[in-house]
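Troubleshooting: if your tokenizer reports a length mismatch, compare your output against this known-good record of 144 residues.
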Amino acid sequence: MDRQGPPGLLPAVHEGDEDAVVRLLRAGADPEEADEDGQTALYLAAVADAPGLVRLLLAAGADPDRLSRGTDAPLCGAACGGHEQVVRALLGAGAAVDLEEEYGFRALTWAVQLGHAGVVSALLAAGAAPDRPGPGGEPPLVAA
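Known-good structure output:
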């Protein structure tokens, strides 16, 4: 169950308003806040390619590995979108590089299959295992 602090963290994240996010976090907003669908503030910032927001939420205590909706990892969302700065911020905060999402997807799988070379490089440098099978049973580099 998510703690409830001042209203507005999720709208501020949606709007990309770093100043509002800082104010809300200082006022006690929960960095782990999720919407009614279970999408976390961190996941929303990660898929929106908002590295500043991601760093703010992580610094405030957001878990880099908490699955949004129980199925979607922030690192995978950022990798899917090719958001290299966000990927690096998440990895720097200790995100598990090979965390598996629903159906067997990992960040490296997404990045390779979608052609995000900078993200692939960052993930491999952080220790992503290129030989772990993806959802179809093939390693990401073979599936690409």
